[in-house]
Every structure is written in structure tokens, then in C-alpha cells.
Amino acid sequence: MDAIDRRLLDEFQHDLPLVPDPYAAIGRELGIGAAEVITRLDRLCRAGCVSRVGAVIKPGCAGASTLAAMAVPGDRLEQVAALVSEYPEVNHNYQREHRLNLWFVVTAASREDVDRVLADIRRRSGIEVLDLPMLEDFHINLGFGLQWT
Amino acid sequence: MTQLDSIDRAIIVATQDGLPLVPRPYDAVAEQVGIAAAEVTARMVAMIEAGVIRRIGAVPNHYALGYRWNGMSVWDVADGDVAAAGAAMTALGFVSHCYQRPRLLPHWPYSLFAMVHARNQDDAELLVRRIAQALGPMNRGHRVLYSTRILKKTGLRLTT
């Protein structure tokens, strides 16, 4: 990753120009051509450094979601984690260091659909599922300030 | 909150894995959705103004960039202090997501969630201390739940 890659990541986490040829517009700011911008972004995506180039949607705008937590006994963690990850409505699933050791996000078209998934996981696992929907979202305007040192 | 119509949703679905990396990406989206490219960008501008789209750009993968310590810091803040505490957290510039969620006593007393990303545990703890300093007496108790494993991670999925 060179200085131009870093600038692509630092300066274009937001405000990708909404013009017909946005990669050319970025290139003009970086002093490179559109084709090179595309090549670099493609490489950064393939390397996994960039998840995608696109829109970040405000949570809760498109359907319903919640953060759910479960306290899973250690010897059942693999099984319950796999059961949870099976659901297409589950888009993040993390093991965390706490008595509540399984944390996942459920996103669906409606709150009823979210409830149905939570109830299903509860029933199939026999373990209580805490339901922690977002009440308020404190807006992060500028993306995340990366530090390269 | 503005309601999205079916065309807005189609635009989100068409772009949720990312804009195509082609010279005229909105033309490609327009073709997929079946509307004019100018309407795609006009609707995206409207969704930005309505706050539905936060930003458009390169979404970094913190983990791949070396930020292996993903800490979910959780804070017990009085309901009346939540807005001030949330604003103080986001003003620090390093919190990637900051949400108020319900406390579920007795299991869970924490109402503010702030995600921090760092290259090692010491750095993560330093960030958490900076949040604690910013909150001062509004903080009635906190902890950090580090992720020990990513079991599944995909972007927000919408279906039409």
C-alpha cells in the first residue's frame, strides 16, 4: 500500500463525487487517471483492505434490525454460533469476552420478521436472547480516521 | 424518517455490495434498476439529504488494515445524559459507531455502545480511557467486550 492508496482510503471514505464519472473526479484530485483509480480500488477490495466502495446506509432506515446477545455455555458455543450464523438475516456474529459471549445483528424487512428470527433462535437453542435495538444513533460524519504509523 | 419507495430500495440493493468499478458506475446501476442514470444520482442525493445514505465512499475493513482489536465499549449513562454523552463520544473522532440501546436490568445495565478499533489491546484501552475522560461523571460504569472471533460478517443486506 503506497501513499496514493492511503489517500484513497483517507480522503474518500465519504464524499465520493456523485457525478457520472466519480473515479475520474477522484483521479483529478490525486493526479492520476480514472483507470488507475479503478485498478487501485479493485486491488484494495481484493486485498480485503476495502470492504466495498459504496453507500453507507443509516441503520434503521431500510427495514428493522437489532443487536442480540446470548450467554452460551462454552461447550455449546460452536453449535449455537453455527445455528445463529445460518440465518440470512444475521449479518454480523461475534464471539466476545463476557458472560454474554455471542453478539449478533439481525436485519429484516420488518420488526415482526426480526422478532420471528429471535424467537426461532431462542426456541432452537433453548437459550434466552437479549434484544437490544438501537434507540438513538449518534451520527459519525466523517468516517473513521485511519492512522498509518 | 423519509420512507423509501421501491426504486430507492432497488438502488440500495443494486449498490449494497459496492458501486461497480467501471468508468460510469451510475450508468451500470441505472441499467440494473431500469431508470435513467440522472435519476439514480438525483435519488442518491435526496437519500443523502434525508440522512438515509450516510456517505458514499471507500468503506475500510478495519481488521484487514491491522486494526485487530475490535472493542465494543458499553457505558452506563443516566437517560438524561445520553444525548450529551453520545455527542461527546462522536466528537472524539475515533469511535466508528455510537448507539443508544435499552438497558435490560438485571442482565445488562449499559445504554450507550461505542465501537473502538485499535492495533493492539493497549491502544484500545487508551481509546476507552479517552472516552471515559470525555464523559467524566456522566459515566456510571463501563466495560469493553473485545471480539475474540468474527463468526460471520456481511454488509447490511436488503432484499427487494
TrEMBL record, chain A:
UniProt enzyme class: lyase
One Pfam family matching this protein: NirdL-like_HTH
Name under which the protein is recorded: siroheme decarboxylase
Ranges where the Siroheme decarboxylase NirL-like HTH domain occurs: 5-48
Annotated family: Belongs to the Ahb/Nir family.
Domain Siroheme decarboxylase AsnC-like ligand binding intervals: 64-138
Keywords: Lyase
InterPro entries (UniProt xref): AsnC_trans_reg2, HTH-Siroheme_Decarb, NirdL-like_HTH, WH-like_DNA-bd_sf
EC number per UniProt: 4.1.1.111
Keyword Lyase applies: yes
Catalysed reactions, as listed in the record: siroheme + 2 H(+) = 12,18-didecarboxysiroheme + 2 CO2
Biological or metabolic pathway of the protein: Porphyrin-containing compound metabolism
PANTHER family: SIROHEME DECARBOXYLASE NIRL SUBUNIT, TRANSCRIPTIONAL REGULATOR, ASNC FAMILY
Organism classification: Bacteria, Pseudomonadati, Pseudomonadota, Alphaproteobacteria, Rhodospirillales
Automatic annotation (TrEMBL), chain B:
Top-level lineage group: Bacteria
Keyword Lyase recorded: yes
Annotated metabolic or biological route of this protein: Porphyrin-containing compound metabolism
Catalysed reaction, written as an equation: siroheme + 2 H(+) = 12,18-didecarboxysiroheme + 2 CO2
Residue span(s) of domain Siroheme decarboxylase NirL-like HTH: 8-54
Keyword annotations from UniProtKB, A to Z: Lyase
Domain Siroheme decarboxylase AsnC-like ligand binding: 65-152
EC numbers: 4.1.1.111
PANTHER family linked: SIROHEME DECARBOXYLASE NIRL SUBUNIT, TRANSCRIPTIONAL REGULATOR, ASNC FAMILY
UniProt similarity note: Belongs to the Ahb/Nir family.
This protein's name: siroheme decarboxylase
Lineage: Bacteria, Pseudomonadati, Pseudomonadota, Alphaproteobacteria, Rhodospirillales
